[in-house]
Predict the structure.
Amino acid sequence: MTTVITLAYLVAAVLFILGLRQLSSPKGARNGNFTAAAGMVIALGATVPLLHFTTAGIVIVAIGVVIGTAVGAIGARVVKMTAIPQMVALFNGVGGGAAALVAVAELLKGGAHPAFAEGFPSVFSIVIGSVSFAGSMVAFAKLQELMTGTPITYPGQQVVNGLIAAAIIGFVIAVLAIASIPFSFISLMVLALVLGVAFVLPIGGADMPVVISMLNACTGLAVAASGFTLNNFALIVAGTLVGASGSLLTKLMSDAMGRSLANVLFGAFGQVQAGATAAAGAAQARSVRSGNAEDLGTLLAYSQRVIIVPGYGLAVAQAQHAAKELADALEKRGVDVSYAIHPVAGRMPGHMNVLLAEANVPYESLKEMDQINDDFKNADVVLVVGANDVVNPAARSTKGSPIYGMPILNADQAKNIIFMKRSMRPGFAGIDNELMYGPHTIMFFGDAKDSLTKLVAAVKAA
Amino acid sequence: MTAQLLNEVTFFVLAVFVGFEVISKVPTILHTPLMSGTNAIHGIILVGAILIAAGANSPTTIALGLVAVTLATTNVVGGFVVTDRMLEMFKGRQQPKPAAPADAKK
Protein backbone atom coordinates (compact mmCIF):
# COMPACT_ATOMS: atom_id res chain seq x y z
CA MET A 1 0.00 0.00 0.00
CA THR A 2 2.73 2.46 0.94
CA THR A 3 4.38 1.73 -2.40
CA VAL A 4 1.25 2.78 -4.27
CA ILE A 5 0.94 5.93 -2.16
CA THR A 6 4.57 6.86 -2.72
CA LEU A 7 4.22 6.28 -6.46
CA ALA A 8 1.12 8.47 -6.53
CA TYR A 9 3.05 11.19 -4.70
CA LEU A 10 5.79 10.83 -7.31
CA VAL A 11 3.24 11.33 -10.09
CA ALA A 12 1.93 14.40 -8.26
CA ALA A 13 5.47 15.79 -7.93
CA VAL A 14 6.11 15.26 -11.65
CA LEU A 15 2.85 17.05 -12.47
CA PHE A 16 3.87 19.99 -10.25
CA ILE A 17 7.20 20.25 -12.06
CA LEU A 18 5.57 20.04 -15.49
CA GLY A 19 2.96 22.57 -14.39
CA LEU A 20 5.64 25.04 -13.32
CA ARG A 21 7.45 24.55 -16.61
CA GLN A 22 4.29 25.28 -18.60
CA LEU A 23 3.48 28.25 -16.39
CA SER A 24 6.80 29.82 -17.39
CA SER A 25 5.89 30.13 -21.06
CA PRO A 26 3.01 32.19 -22.47
CA LYS A 27 1.85 29.36 -24.69
CA GLY A 28 1.11 26.71 -22.10
CA ALA A 29 0.56 28.82 -19.02
CA ARG A 30 -3.10 28.04 -18.53
CA ASN A 31 -2.59 24.32 -19.08
CA GLY A 32 0.25 24.49 -16.59
CA ASN A 33 -2.15 25.60 -13.93
CA PHE A 34 -4.45 22.65 -14.72
CA THR A 35 -1.49 20.27 -14.68
CA ALA A 36 -0.48 21.45 -11.22
CA ALA A 37 -4.10 21.24 -10.02
CA ALA A 38 -4.26 17.64 -11.27
CA GLY A 39 -1.11 16.93 -9.27
CA MET A 40 -2.81 18.36 -6.22
CA VAL A 41 -5.88 16.15 -6.67
CA ILE A 42 -3.68 13.05 -7.02
CA ALA A 43 -1.64 13.96 -3.93
CA LEU A 44 -4.80 14.46 -1.89
CA GLY A 45 -6.37 11.25 -3.17
CA ALA A 46 -3.25 9.26 -2.36
CA THR A 47 -3.34 10.55 1.20
CA VAL A 48 -6.79 9.13 1.94
CA PRO A 49 -5.60 5.54 2.71
CA LEU A 50 -3.16 7.01 5.26
CA LEU A 51 -5.95 8.50 7.33
CA HIS A 52 -7.33 6.94 10.50
CA PHE A 53 -10.41 9.03 11.10
CA THR A 54 -11.93 9.68 14.48
CA THR A 55 -15.56 10.82 14.40
CA ALA A 56 -14.56 14.35 15.24
CA GLY A 57 -11.83 14.06 12.59
CA ILE A 58 -14.30 13.33 9.77
CA VAL A 59 -16.52 16.21 10.83
CA ILE A 60 -13.79 18.84 11.04
CA VAL A 61 -12.15 17.79 7.78
CA ALA A 62 -15.51 18.03 6.03
CA ILE A 63 -16.35 21.40 7.56
CA GLY A 64 -12.87 22.76 6.88
CA VAL A 65 -12.87 21.65 3.25
CA VAL A 66 -16.34 23.07 2.60
CA ILE A 67 -15.58 26.44 4.19
CA GLY A 68 -12.15 26.67 2.59
CA THR A 69 -13.50 25.80 -0.86
CA ALA A 70 -16.28 28.35 -0.57
CA VAL A 71 -14.00 31.14 0.65
CA GLY A 72 -11.27 30.33 -1.87
CA ALA A 73 -13.50 29.89 -4.90
CA ILE A 74 -15.81 32.81 -4.23
CA GLY A 75 -12.96 35.10 -3.18
CA ALA A 76 -10.97 34.26 -6.30
CA ARG A 77 -14.01 34.62 -8.60
CA VAL A 78 -15.46 37.88 -7.38
CA VAL A 79 -12.22 39.78 -6.82
CA LYS A 80 -11.68 42.62 -9.27
CA MET A 81 -8.71 42.25 -11.61
CA THR A 82 -7.10 45.27 -9.98
CA ALA A 83 -7.24 43.60 -6.57
CA ILE A 84 -5.54 40.37 -7.60
CA PRO A 85 -2.17 41.12 -5.97
CA GLN A 86 -3.67 41.37 -2.51
CA MET A 87 -5.72 38.24 -3.14
CA VAL A 88 -2.52 36.33 -3.87
CA ALA A 89 -1.09 37.71 -0.62
CA LEU A 90 -4.13 36.49 1.27
CA PHE A 91 -4.02 32.96 -0.19
CA ASN A 92 -0.30 32.81 0.52
CA GLY A 93 -0.77 33.93 4.11
CA VAL A 94 -3.38 31.30 4.94
CA GLY A 95 -1.07 28.59 3.56
CA GLY A 96 1.70 29.77 5.88
CA GLY A 97 -0.73 29.82 8.79
CA ALA A 98 -1.81 26.25 8.02
CA ALA A 99 1.82 25.08 7.93
CA ALA A 100 2.48 26.66 11.34
CA LEU A 101 -0.63 25.04 12.87
CA VAL A 102 0.28 21.60 11.50
CA ALA A 103 3.68 21.96 13.15
CA VAL A 104 2.08 23.02 16.45
CA ALA A 105 -0.15 19.95 16.37
CA GLU A 106 2.86 17.71 15.75
CA LEU A 107 4.80 19.23 18.65
CA LEU A 108 1.81 18.72 20.95
CA LYS A 109 1.85 15.06 19.99
CA GLY A 110 5.61 14.67 20.28
CA GLY A 111 6.01 15.05 24.04
CA ALA A 112 8.42 17.30 25.91
CA HIS A 113 11.60 16.03 24.27
CA PRO A 114 11.14 15.38 20.56
CA ALA A 115 14.04 14.05 18.51
CA PHE A 116 15.98 16.85 16.82
CA ALA A 117 15.05 15.54 13.36
CA GLU A 118 11.36 16.10 14.19
CA GLY A 119 11.62 19.05 16.54
CA PHE A 120 13.76 21.24 14.34
CA PRO A 121 11.56 21.12 11.21
CA SER A 122 8.54 21.79 13.43
CA VAL A 123 9.92 24.95 15.00
CA PHE A 124 11.21 26.06 11.60
CA SER A 125 7.73 25.62 10.16
CA ILE A 126 6.14 27.48 13.09
CA VAL A 127 8.47 30.46 12.75
CA ILE A 128 8.51 30.77 8.96
CA GLY A 129 4.84 29.90 8.54
CA SER A 130 3.81 32.51 11.13
CA VAL A 131 6.05 35.22 9.67
CA SER A 132 4.55 34.46 6.27
CA PHE A 133 1.01 34.58 7.61
CA ALA A 134 1.39 37.87 9.48
CA GLY A 135 3.53 39.48 6.77
CA SER A 136 1.03 38.55 4.06
CA MET A 137 -1.82 40.02 6.06
CA VAL A 138 0.04 43.33 6.36
CA ALA A 139 0.80 43.21 2.62
CA PHE A 140 -2.88 42.56 1.99
CA ALA A 141 -3.88 45.49 4.21
CA LYS A 142 -1.44 47.82 2.46
CA LEU A 143 -2.56 46.89 -1.05
CA GLN A 144 -6.23 46.93 -0.12
CA GLU A 145 -5.57 50.35 1.38
CA LEU A 146 -6.94 49.30 4.74
CA MET A 147 -3.80 50.95 6.03
CA THR A 148 -1.37 53.45 4.56
CA GLY A 149 0.83 52.21 1.73
CA THR A 150 3.70 54.43 2.76
CA PRO A 151 6.47 52.85 4.83
CA ILE A 152 5.87 52.96 8.57
CA THR A 153 9.10 53.71 10.35
CA TYR A 154 10.19 54.83 13.80
CA PRO A 155 13.57 55.41 15.42
CA GLY A 156 15.36 52.24 16.44
CA GLN A 157 13.13 50.06 14.29
CA GLN A 158 15.91 47.80 13.10
CA VAL A 159 17.02 47.30 16.73
CA VAL A 160 13.50 46.34 17.80
CA ASN A 161 13.18 43.90 14.90
CA GLY A 162 16.58 42.50 15.78
CA LEU A 163 15.50 41.96 19.39
CA ILE A 164 12.35 40.15 18.29
CA ALA A 165 14.46 37.93 16.04
CA ALA A 166 16.86 37.25 18.93
CA ALA A 167 13.97 36.33 21.22
CA ILE A 168 12.71 33.93 18.55
CA ILE A 169 16.10 32.23 18.37
CA GLY A 170 16.06 32.00 22.17
CA PHE A 171 12.70 30.24 22.17
CA VAL A 172 13.79 27.93 19.35
CA ILE A 173 16.68 26.79 21.53
CA ALA A 174 14.36 26.50 24.52
CA VAL A 175 11.93 24.26 22.63
CA LEU A 176 14.65 22.03 21.21
CA ALA A 177 17.05 21.81 24.14
CA ILE A 178 14.99 22.36 27.28
CA ALA A 179 11.36 21.41 26.88
CA SER A 180 8.85 21.35 24.07
CA ILE A 181 5.88 22.54 26.09
CA PRO A 182 2.89 24.56 24.83
CA PHE A 183 4.12 27.70 26.63
CA SER A 184 7.40 27.72 24.71
CA PHE A 185 6.13 26.97 21.22
CA ILE A 186 3.04 29.15 21.52
CA SER A 187 5.29 32.02 22.60
CA LEU A 188 7.46 31.23 19.62
CA MET A 189 4.46 31.48 17.32
CA VAL A 190 3.30 34.79 18.80
CA LEU A 191 6.78 36.29 18.48
CA ALA A 192 7.01 35.10 14.87
CA LEU A 193 3.65 36.72 14.10
CA VAL A 194 4.90 39.98 15.61
CA LEU A 195 8.08 39.74 13.55
CA GLY A 196 6.04 39.20 10.38
CA VAL A 197 4.13 42.41 11.00
CA ALA A 198 7.20 44.38 12.07
CA PHE A 199 9.15 43.18 9.06
CA VAL A 200 6.63 44.31 6.43
CA LEU A 201 5.55 47.62 8.05
CA PRO A 202 8.60 49.61 6.91
CA ILE A 203 8.30 48.41 3.31
CA GLY A 204 6.45 50.67 0.90
CA GLY A 205 3.31 49.61 -0.94
CA ALA A 206 5.07 49.74 -4.29
CA ASP A 207 7.42 47.00 -3.14
CA MET A 208 4.68 44.67 -1.93
CA PRO A 209 4.85 42.38 -4.99
CA VAL A 210 8.44 41.50 -4.18
CA VAL A 211 7.55 40.98 -0.52
CA ILE A 212 4.62 38.75 -1.40
CA SER A 213 6.80 36.71 -3.72
CA MET A 214 9.36 36.29 -0.96
CA LEU A 215 6.74 35.30 1.61
CA ASN A 216 5.39 32.86 -0.98
CA ALA A 217 8.81 31.20 -1.12
CA CYS A 218 8.89 31.20 2.70
CA THR A 219 5.55 29.42 2.89
CA GLY A 220 6.95 26.83 0.47
CA LEU A 221 9.85 26.18 2.83
CA ALA A 222 7.56 26.03 5.86
CA VAL A 223 5.48 23.42 4.03
CA ALA A 224 8.61 21.44 3.18
CA ALA A 225 9.63 21.56 6.84
CA SER A 226 6.20 20.22 7.85
CA GLY A 227 6.89 17.42 5.36
CA PHE A 228 10.01 16.50 7.30
CA THR A 229 8.02 16.43 10.53
CA LEU A 230 5.25 14.28 9.07
CA ASN A 231 7.66 12.20 6.94
CA ASN A 232 5.56 13.05 3.92
CA PHE A 233 7.27 12.98 0.53
CA ALA A 234 4.64 15.09 -1.25
CA LEU A 235 4.96 17.98 1.21
CA ILE A 236 8.75 17.93 1.08
CA VAL A 237 9.00 17.95 -2.70
CA ALA A 238 6.15 20.38 -3.47
CA GLY A 239 7.14 22.75 -0.66
CA THR A 240 10.77 22.78 -1.72
CA LEU A 241 9.87 23.35 -5.37
CA VAL A 242 7.90 26.42 -4.36
CA GLY A 243 10.63 27.57 -1.98
CA ALA A 244 13.28 27.37 -4.69
CA SER A 245 11.31 28.67 -7.66
CA GLY A 246 9.73 31.35 -5.47
CA SER A 247 13.16 32.58 -4.34
CA LEU A 248 14.34 32.81 -7.92
CA LEU A 249 11.15 34.59 -8.94
CA THR A 250 11.63 37.08 -6.10
CA LYS A 251 15.08 37.86 -7.43
CA LEU A 252 13.75 38.23 -11.01
CA MET A 253 11.11 40.66 -9.73
CA SER A 254 13.51 42.86 -7.83
CA ASP A 255 15.84 42.78 -10.86
CA ALA A 256 12.94 44.03 -12.98
CA MET A 257 12.67 46.98 -10.60
CA GLY A 258 16.41 47.57 -10.94
CA ARG A 259 17.04 47.04 -7.23
CA SER A 260 18.65 44.41 -5.08
CA LEU A 261 16.42 42.32 -2.85
CA ALA A 262 18.22 43.60 0.27
CA ASN A 263 17.49 47.14 -0.87
CA VAL A 264 13.81 46.36 -1.27
CA LEU A 265 13.51 44.66 2.12
CA PHE A 266 15.65 46.76 4.38
CA GLY A 267 16.65 49.70 2.29
CA ALA A 268 16.31 53.16 1.08
CA PHE A 269 12.54 53.45 0.84
CA GLY A 270 12.15 53.98 4.58
CA GLN A 271 15.09 56.27 5.07
CA VAL A 272 14.63 58.88 2.37
CA GLN A 273 10.92 59.22 2.86
CA ALA A 274 11.14 62.41 4.91
CA GLY A 275 13.24 64.22 2.31
CA ALA A 276 11.04 63.14 -0.55
CA THR A 277 7.86 64.32 1.14
CA ALA A 278 9.41 67.68 1.80
CA ALA A 279 10.36 67.95 -1.86
CA ALA A 280 6.82 67.07 -2.88
CA GLY A 281 5.49 69.77 -0.58
CA ALA A 282 7.81 72.39 -2.01
CA ALA A 283 6.77 71.44 -5.53
CA GLN A 284 3.08 72.09 -4.93
CA ALA A 285 3.64 75.73 -5.71
CA ARG A 286 5.22 75.11 -9.12
CA SER A 287 3.12 75.70 -12.17
CA VAL A 288 2.25 73.20 -14.85
CA ARG A 289 0.71 73.50 -18.28
CA SER A 290 -2.71 71.92 -18.64
CA GLY A 291 -4.79 71.38 -21.75
CA ASN A 292 -8.36 70.69 -22.79
CA ALA A 293 -9.75 67.67 -24.59
CA GLU A 294 -10.28 69.41 -27.97
CA ASP A 295 -6.69 70.62 -28.32
CA LEU A 296 -5.23 67.37 -27.13
CA GLY A 297 -7.54 65.34 -29.37
CA THR A 298 -6.35 67.33 -32.38
CA LEU A 299 -2.74 66.87 -31.36
CA LEU A 300 -3.27 63.11 -31.16
CA ALA A 301 -5.26 62.87 -34.38
CA TYR A 302 -2.53 64.55 -36.44
CA SER A 303 0.35 62.54 -34.98
CA GLN A 304 2.09 59.67 -36.67
CA ARG A 305 3.33 57.74 -33.71
CA VAL A 306 1.61 57.59 -30.32
CA ILE A 307 2.80 55.58 -27.36
CA ILE A 308 0.44 54.93 -24.47
CA VAL A 309 2.02 54.40 -21.06
CA PRO A 310 -0.61 52.75 -18.86
CA GLY A 311 -0.26 52.54 -15.10
CA TYR A 312 -2.17 51.51 -12.04
CA GLY A 313 -4.42 54.60 -12.26
CA LEU A 314 -5.79 53.25 -15.53
CA ALA A 315 -6.64 50.00 -13.82
CA VAL A 316 -8.31 51.70 -10.85
CA ALA A 317 -10.49 53.80 -13.14
CA GLN A 318 -11.34 50.65 -15.15
CA ALA A 319 -10.24 52.66 -18.15
CA GLN A 320 -8.58 49.89 -20.16
CA HIS A 321 -11.57 49.65 -22.50
CA ALA A 322 -11.60 53.43 -23.02
CA ALA A 323 -7.88 53.31 -23.79
CA LYS A 324 -8.49 50.61 -26.38
CA GLU A 325 -11.27 52.73 -27.91
CA LEU A 326 -8.91 55.70 -28.21
CA ALA A 327 -6.25 53.50 -29.80
CA ASP A 328 -8.82 52.17 -32.28
CA ALA A 329 -9.98 55.67 -33.19
CA LEU A 330 -6.39 56.75 -33.77
CA GLU A 331 -5.48 53.67 -35.76
CA LYS A 332 -8.49 54.29 -38.00
CA ARG A 333 -6.81 57.59 -38.91
CA GLY A 334 -3.56 55.83 -39.67
CA VAL A 335 -1.79 56.70 -36.45
CA ASP A 336 0.63 54.07 -35.21
CA VAL A 337 -0.25 53.24 -31.60
CA SER A 338 1.63 51.04 -29.18
CA TYR A 339 1.58 50.48 -25.44
CA ALA A 340 4.75 50.70 -23.39
CA ILE A 341 4.59 48.30 -20.48
CA HIS A 342 7.01 48.90 -17.66
CA PRO A 343 8.03 45.66 -15.91
CA VAL A 344 6.33 46.80 -12.71
CA ALA A 345 3.42 48.70 -14.27
CA GLY A 346 0.31 48.16 -12.21
CA ARG A 347 1.18 46.72 -8.88
CA MET A 348 2.77 43.50 -9.93
CA PRO A 349 4.96 42.49 -12.83
CA GLY A 350 2.63 41.37 -15.60
CA HIS A 351 -0.40 42.95 -13.94
CA MET A 352 -0.93 45.53 -16.70
CA ASN A 353 -0.68 42.90 -19.44
CA VAL A 354 -3.47 40.99 -17.78
CA LEU A 355 -5.68 44.07 -17.57
CA LEU A 356 -5.10 45.16 -21.16
CA ALA A 357 -5.66 41.64 -22.40
CA GLU A 358 -9.04 41.88 -20.69
CA ALA A 359 -9.83 44.83 -22.97
CA ASN A 360 -8.74 42.80 -26.03
CA VAL A 361 -5.68 44.90 -26.77
CA PRO A 362 -3.72 42.85 -29.30
CA TYR A 363 -0.62 41.17 -27.96
CA GLU A 364 1.66 42.73 -30.60
CA SER A 365 0.80 46.27 -29.49
CA LEU A 366 2.14 45.63 -25.99
CA LYS A 367 5.81 46.48 -25.94
CA GLU A 368 8.13 45.71 -23.08
CA MET A 369 10.46 48.39 -21.82
CA ASP A 370 13.60 47.18 -23.59
CA GLN A 371 11.73 46.85 -26.87
CA ILE A 372 10.33 50.34 -26.91
CA ASN A 373 12.66 52.57 -24.94
CA ASP A 374 14.61 53.67 -28.02
CA ASP A 375 11.39 54.54 -29.85
CA PHE A 376 10.24 57.25 -27.48
CA LYS A 377 12.36 59.89 -29.20
CA ASN A 378 10.51 59.15 -32.46
CA ALA A 379 7.10 59.40 -30.86
CA ASP A 380 4.98 62.46 -31.55
CA VAL A 381 2.89 62.01 -28.45
CA VAL A 382 3.30 59.94 -25.33
CA LEU A 383 0.09 59.50 -23.42
CA VAL A 384 0.73 58.73 -19.76
CA VAL A 385 -2.45 57.28 -18.28
CA GLY A 386 -2.41 56.69 -14.56
CA ALA A 387 1.30 55.92 -14.49
CA ASN A 388 3.74 58.03 -12.53
CA ASP A 389 6.82 56.54 -10.92
CA VAL A 390 7.71 54.47 -13.99
CA VAL A 391 8.21 57.63 -16.08
CA ASN A 392 9.86 59.72 -13.35
CA PRO A 393 13.22 60.98 -14.59
CA ALA A 394 14.35 61.23 -10.95
CA ALA A 395 15.12 57.51 -11.22
CA ARG A 396 17.93 58.44 -13.63
CA SER A 397 19.19 61.68 -12.14
CA THR A 398 18.33 62.22 -8.48
CA LYS A 399 20.68 60.25 -6.26
CA GLY A 400 18.72 60.56 -3.01
CA SER A 401 15.40 59.58 -4.55
CA PRO A 402 13.79 56.35 -3.32
CA ILE A 403 13.41 55.17 -6.90
CA TYR A 404 16.94 56.13 -7.97
CA GLY A 405 18.36 53.40 -10.19
CA MET A 406 15.02 51.92 -11.21
CA PRO A 407 14.89 51.53 -14.99
CA ILE A 408 12.22 53.85 -16.38
CA LEU A 409 10.41 54.41 -19.65
CA ASN A 410 11.99 57.27 -21.61
CA ALA A 411 8.71 59.13 -21.95
CA ASP A 412 10.51 62.44 -21.42
CA GLN A 413 12.26 62.08 -24.79
CA ALA A 414 9.06 62.29 -26.81
CA LYS A 415 8.07 65.45 -28.71
CA ASN A 416 4.90 65.88 -26.66
CA ILE A 417 3.79 64.32 -23.44
CA ILE A 418 0.17 64.24 -22.37
CA PHE A 419 0.17 63.42 -18.68
CA MET A 420 -3.27 62.28 -17.57
CA LYS A 421 -3.78 62.45 -13.85
CA ARG A 422 -6.51 63.00 -11.31
CA SER A 423 -4.53 65.62 -9.43
CA MET A 424 -0.99 66.68 -8.66
CA ARG A 425 -0.81 64.06 -5.93
CA PRO A 426 2.49 62.12 -6.05
CA GLY A 427 2.59 58.47 -7.12
CA PHE A 428 2.76 55.30 -5.11
CA ALA A 429 6.37 55.84 -4.10
CA GLY A 430 5.28 59.16 -2.59
CA ILE A 431 7.63 61.36 -4.58
CA ASP A 432 7.22 64.23 -6.97
CA ASN A 433 7.59 63.74 -10.73
CA GLU A 434 9.78 66.20 -12.61
CA LEU A 435 8.23 65.12 -15.91
CA MET A 436 4.99 66.92 -15.04
CA TYR A 437 6.83 70.26 -15.11
CA GLY A 438 8.72 69.50 -18.34
CA PRO A 439 8.56 71.95 -21.28
CA HIS A 440 6.89 69.39 -23.57
CA THR A 441 4.39 68.17 -21.02
CA ILE A 442 0.71 69.03 -20.99
CA MET A 443 -1.30 67.92 -17.99
CA PHE A 444 -4.81 66.65 -18.55
CA PHE A 445 -6.62 66.44 -15.21
CA GLY A 446 -9.55 64.20 -14.42
CA ASP A 447 -10.64 60.63 -13.99
CA ALA A 448 -8.75 58.45 -16.48
CA LYS A 449 -11.88 56.90 -17.95
CA ASP A 450 -13.73 60.21 -18.40
CA SER A 451 -10.68 61.87 -19.88
CA LEU A 452 -10.07 59.08 -22.35
CA THR A 453 -13.70 59.10 -23.43
CA LYS A 454 -13.45 62.86 -24.03
CA LEU A 455 -10.29 62.35 -26.06
CA VAL A 456 -11.99 59.69 -28.18
CA ALA A 457 -14.76 62.16 -29.02
CA ALA A 458 -12.24 64.90 -29.78
CA VAL A 459 -10.19 62.62 -32.03
CA LYS A 460 -13.28 61.58 -33.94
CA ALA A 461 -14.27 65.22 -34.38
CA ALA A 462 -10.83 66.36 -35.50
CA MET B 1 20.90 9.79 10.48
CA THR B 2 18.19 7.28 9.70
CA ALA B 3 17.69 5.93 6.20
CA GLN B 4 14.37 7.74 5.97
CA LEU B 5 15.83 11.11 6.94
CA LEU B 6 18.64 10.55 4.45
CA ASN B 7 16.08 9.92 1.71
CA GLU B 8 14.16 13.02 2.67
CA VAL B 9 17.25 15.20 2.61
CA THR B 10 18.07 13.80 -0.85
CA PHE B 11 14.62 14.70 -2.17
CA PHE B 12 14.92 18.13 -0.62
CA VAL B 13 18.26 18.94 -2.25
CA LEU B 14 17.20 17.64 -5.66
CA ALA B 15 13.93 19.56 -5.46
CA VAL B 16 15.84 22.78 -4.77
CA PHE B 17 17.73 22.37 -8.03
CA VAL B 18 14.65 21.40 -10.01
CA GLY B 19 12.83 24.43 -8.59
CA PHE B 20 15.57 26.77 -9.77
CA GLU B 21 15.91 25.16 -13.19
CA VAL B 22 12.28 24.81 -14.08
CA ILE B 23 11.46 28.53 -14.10
CA SER B 24 14.82 29.95 -15.13
CA LYS B 25 13.53 31.71 -18.25
CA VAL B 26 10.19 33.28 -17.51
CA PRO B 27 9.02 36.45 -19.30
CA THR B 28 8.02 39.42 -17.13
CA ILE B 29 4.38 39.20 -18.17
CA LEU B 30 4.13 35.81 -16.51
CA HIS B 31 5.68 36.76 -13.17
CA THR B 32 2.33 37.35 -11.48
CA PRO B 33 0.57 34.21 -12.77
CA LEU B 34 3.65 32.12 -11.97
CA MET B 35 3.80 33.46 -8.44
CA SER B 36 0.13 32.75 -8.05
CA GLY B 37 0.57 29.22 -9.46
CA THR B 38 3.41 28.38 -7.07
CA ASN B 39 1.28 29.86 -4.32
CA ALA B 40 -1.43 27.31 -5.13
CA ILE B 41 1.11 24.46 -5.14
CA HIS B 42 2.21 25.12 -1.57
CA GLY B 43 -1.42 24.54 -0.70
CA ILE B 44 -0.21 20.91 -0.60
CA ILE B 45 -0.02 21.66 3.14
CA LEU B 46 -3.66 20.56 2.99
CA VAL B 47 -2.30 16.99 2.95
CA GLY B 48 -0.55 17.70 6.25
CA ALA B 49 -3.57 19.50 7.67
CA ILE B 50 -5.86 16.57 6.87
CA LEU B 51 -3.35 14.11 8.34
CA ILE B 52 -3.45 15.90 11.70
CA ALA B 53 -7.17 16.73 11.58
CA ALA B 54 -8.31 13.18 10.77
CA GLY B 55 -7.03 11.78 14.04
CA ALA B 56 -8.20 14.68 16.20
CA ASN B 57 -9.42 13.49 19.57
CA SER B 58 -9.09 16.40 21.99
CA PRO B 59 -10.57 19.90 21.96
CA THR B 60 -7.13 21.35 21.18
CA THR B 61 -6.40 19.08 18.23
CA ILE B 62 -9.95 19.50 16.94
CA ALA B 63 -9.57 23.27 16.95
CA LEU B 64 -6.09 23.14 15.40
CA GLY B 65 -7.19 20.63 12.76
CA LEU B 66 -10.30 22.54 11.80
CA VAL B 67 -8.48 25.85 11.38
CA ALA B 68 -5.56 24.24 9.55
CA VAL B 69 -7.81 22.39 7.08
CA THR B 70 -9.88 25.52 6.42
CA LEU B 71 -6.84 27.71 5.82
CA ALA B 72 -5.09 25.13 3.64
CA THR B 73 -8.19 24.48 1.52
CA THR B 74 -8.59 28.22 0.99
CA ASN B 75 -4.97 28.32 -0.18
CA VAL B 76 -5.41 25.46 -2.67
CA VAL B 77 -8.78 26.39 -4.13
CA GLY B 78 -8.28 30.15 -4.14
CA GLY B 79 -4.75 29.78 -5.50
CA PHE B 80 -5.68 27.68 -8.51
CA VAL B 81 -8.88 29.58 -9.32
CA VAL B 82 -7.27 33.01 -9.17
CA THR B 83 -4.36 31.82 -11.31
CA ASP B 84 -6.77 30.46 -13.87
CA ARG B 85 -8.62 33.76 -13.92
CA MET B 86 -5.44 35.61 -14.74
CA LEU B 87 -4.44 33.18 -17.46
CA GLU B 88 -7.91 33.16 -18.97
CA MET B 89 -7.18 36.74 -20.08
CA PHE B 90 -4.09 35.68 -21.95
CA LYS B 91 -5.98 32.97 -23.79
CA GLY B 92 -8.83 35.24 -24.88
CA ARG B 93 -6.38 37.44 -26.64
CA GLN B 94 -4.66 34.67 -28.53
CA GLN B 95 -7.72 33.41 -30.34
CA PRO B 96 -8.16 36.29 -32.79
CA LYS B 97 -4.41 36.36 -33.47
CA PRO B 98 -3.07 32.85 -33.88
CA ALA B 99 0.38 34.26 -34.60
CA ALA B 100 0.77 35.72 -31.13
CA PRO B 101 2.08 32.64 -29.31
CA ALA B 102 4.76 32.17 -31.96
CA ASP B 103 5.90 35.76 -31.44
CA ALA B 104 5.95 35.31 -27.73
CA LYS B 105 8.22 32.30 -27.95
CA LYS B 106 11.18 33.98 -29.51
